[in-house]
């Protein structure tokens, strides 16, 4: 697996912050429930993203050696008034500037604490890119707007990272639902139908008792999920239903449903 360049992640964070900000100022109902994160309203989702960006910016900018409490993060509260789209968008944009400035200044190899034990700024550049890619889709769905395609290199890396996260959770948080992702001898194939062959946007995921394994490539599996890469990513992340237009499930659908039920951040 080859990660994207550090600057590519930084550029994508800028792009995705802009996309999310456009949703905020689109006239969408900020009090609407986010269907894919039903504990949040759209405004609460945006505040979550902005806080995560500022928190990460502080961790990277200070080269933190340990976790930083959120209440120490400058500006984490966001706008005092709720329902103010302009103020929320401005705060979100500033949050993006905080994290991207810290990441660019640090470079990928600078030391910075992380929950995953990969204590580098590069870890955070990748994590925040995909955090906002997925939550940006959540926001679009809450606003009733059409999903926008994610750049192919970013979407493929997001699938890789999600698989890495699920495997990490299985290893270090044995009491979580992800530990139940076990089906020895069974496998899942993801197949993007709209990408060039050189991107190799196909995955084979196996579910042995000791935890998932995965690799890129075209291989037969117990079940396959096929479709445009953005849609495959969002469905595999539980943001699009398996029956969404353009997606095709071939084989044992229940295995994919097991993934969607149990795959988790922990």
Task: Explain the overall architecture.
- It comes from Streptomyces coelicoflavus.
- GO terms for molecular function: isomerase activity; metal ion binding.
- Residues 153-257 form the MDMPI C-terminal domain.
- Residues 12-139 form the Mycothiol-dependent maleylpyruvate isomerase metal-binding domain.
- The protein has 266 residues and is of the alpha+beta class.
- It has two domains: 6-143, Four Helix Bundle (Hemerythrin (Met), subunit A) (Up-down Bundle); 173-262, Nonspecific Lipid-transfer Protein, Chain A (2-Layer Sandwich).
- Helices cover 46% and strands 12% of the residues.
- The chain has seven helices and seven strands.
- The strands form two sheets. It has a five-stranded mixed sheet with strand order 5-4-3-6-7. Strands 1-2 form a two-stranded antiparallel ribbon.
- Strand 1 (33-34) and strand 2 (37-41) form a beta hairpin.
- Helix 1 (6-24) runs parallel beside helix 4, helix 2 packs parallel to helix 3 (85-106) and helix 2 (42-61) runs antiparallel to helix 4 (121-143).
- The longest helix is centred in the middle third of the chain and has 23 residues, at 121-143.
- The chain is globular and about 50 Å long.
- The two termini are 24 Å apart.
- 41% of the residues are buried.
Secondary-structure blueprint:
Elements lengths: L5 H19 L8 E2 L2 E5 H20 L23 H22 L14 H23 L8 H21 L14 E6 L9 E5 L6 E4 L6 E5 L1 H8 L11 E4 L1 H10 L4
Parallel strand pairs: 3-6
Antiparallel strand pairs: 1-2, 3-4, 4-5, 6-7
Helix pairs in contact: 1-3, 1-4, 2-3, 2-4, 4-5, 5-6
